[in-house]
Specification:
This protein is an alpha/beta fold and 350 residues long. It folds into 2 domains: 2-159 and 316-349, Quinone Oxidoreductase, Chain A, domain 1 (Alpha-Beta Complex), CATH 3.90.180; 161-292, NAD(P)-binding Rossmann-like Domain (Rossmann fold, 3-Layer(aba) Sandwich), CATH 3.40.50.720. The chain has helices spanning 41-47, 97-100, 151-154, 160-170, 188-197, 212-218, 229-233, 253-256, 281-284, 298-311, 325-333, and strands at residues 2-7, 16-21, 29-38, 64-71, 83-86, 89-91, 112-113, 133-137, 142-143, 178-182, 201-206, 222-225, 239-244, 259-267, 289-292, 317-321, 340-344. The strands form 4 sheets. Strands 3, 4, 5, 8, 9, 16 and 17 form a 7-stranded mixed beta sheet that branches. Strands 12-11-10-13-14-15 form a 6-stranded parallel beta sheet, with helices on one face. The longest helix is centred in the C-terminal third of the chain and has 14 residues, at 298-311. It is globular, with a radius of gyration of 20 Å. The two termini are 20 Å apart.
Length: 350
């Protein structure tokens, strides 16, 4: 079926209206009529070929919220009209140990991303959520229980939310834990909200004095300006866990020094250039760890959505029209958004 979308034909062209083809729903498929799609920095990297392997035409978008428009004959968990979400994954091998553990994001044979992933559908790679509808296997569709007036702000939970929720859960963050969140952007602001809701003592780190009040309003108990050596030194050896959301190369030693014995610094941002190599001594002598984490599996993403619905958590967003996506990308590069753009897909019909 022909579907309106916004995408790019090459790395040096702006995004433009496209007519794309979606498959008719098969027995296990759910057709989602998309209402909102969040804008992730990964979208920009992919569209502009800043990461290798972009296939064109490229239709990005993996923070999708909408309503079920049709279901296949074997679909049991969804019905027409249900409010649903689609995140970063639309398929995986379903045979490996990772998939068996509900960790499809670590699929040994490679997961299929919501856009720019291999598929039998035309044009041979997946096309994402900057579009009016999408057809997805029922195993990769998620139920959304937030009220209707929050749905636009739910969309970024499908990437920014799960990217921060998964490591917080894996390292068992909760009451009695002192947790640091490095960076107050699309990921970081969700990390603050989630760690606060989990009952931890939350300290936000920012390079900007001007973001202090924002971080406190999001739920941080304290805010540290990371360029201030005295403020950093005051927290030496005191953190159970630090979640580093910054996607630019920076000195990790400044944060490993703040960890307790057995504390972990977890990285979720992927910089264009490698971080400077960390000193080994501070790790060895306190049994500290530097780790990484990638989004989350379907089961955990559903858990995250349910947790957020229960606690009234959504992303802080600015709604845009599809026609304004390139301007939004330029503003993203300047960090000029609090904290996530979301496309109103209805604007595609205008």
């Amino acid at each position: 079926m022909t579907t309106q979308a916004y995408g790019a034909q090459s790395a040096d062209q702006p995004l433009q209206p496209l007519a794309i083809e979606r498959r008719a729903p098969g027995p296990r498929d759910v057709q989602v009529e998309i209402a909102y799609c969040g804008v992730c920095h990964s979208d920009l990297h992919t569209v502009r070929s800043e990461w290798p392997g972009t296939a064109y035409p490229c239709v990005p978008g993996h923070e999708i919220v909408g309503h079920v428009g049709a279901v296949g004959s074997d679909v049991t968990g969804f019905k027409v009209g249900d409010t649903v979400g689609v995140g970063c994954l639309v398929d995986s091998c379903q045979r490996c140990a990772a998939c068996g553990d509900g960790l499809e994001q670590y699929c040994d044979n490679g997961f299929v991303g919501t856009y720019n992933g291999p598929t039998k559908d035309e044009p041979g790679h997946t096309l994402g959520g900057y579009s009016q509808r999408i057809v997805v296997d029922q195993g990769f569709v998620l139920k959304v229980h937030h009220p209707a007036d929050q749905l636009a702000a739910v969309a970024p939970l499908l990437c920014a939310g799960i990217t921060t929720y998964s490591p917080l859960r894996h390292w068992k963050v909760g009451p009695g834990h002192k947790v640091g969140i490095v960076g107050i952007g699309g990921l970081g602001h969700m990390g603050i909200k989630l760690a606060h809701a989990m009952g931890a003592q939350v300290v936000a780190f920012t390079t900007s004095e001007g973001k202090k009040n924002d971080a406190l309003a999001l739920g941080a108990d304290e805010v540290v300006v990371s360029r201030n050596r005295d403020e950093m030194k005051a927290h030496t050896g005191s953190f159970d866990f630090i979640l580093d959301t910054v996607a630019a190369s920076h000195d990790l030693d400044a944060y490993t020094a703040l960890l307790k014995r057995d504390g972990t610094l977890c990285l979720v941002g992927v910089p264009e250039n490698p971080h400077p190599s960390p000193n080994v001594g501070p790790l060895i002598f306190r049994r500290r760890a530097i780790a990484g984490s990638l989004i989350g599996g379907i089961r955990e993403t559903q858990e995250m959505l349910d947790f957020c619905a229960e606690h009234g958590i959504v992303s802080e967003i600015e709604m845009i029209r599809a026609q304004d996506i390139d301007a939004a990308y330029e503003r993203m590069l300047r960090s000029d958004v609090k904290y996530r753009f979301v496309i109103d897909i209805a604007s595609m019909g205008q």
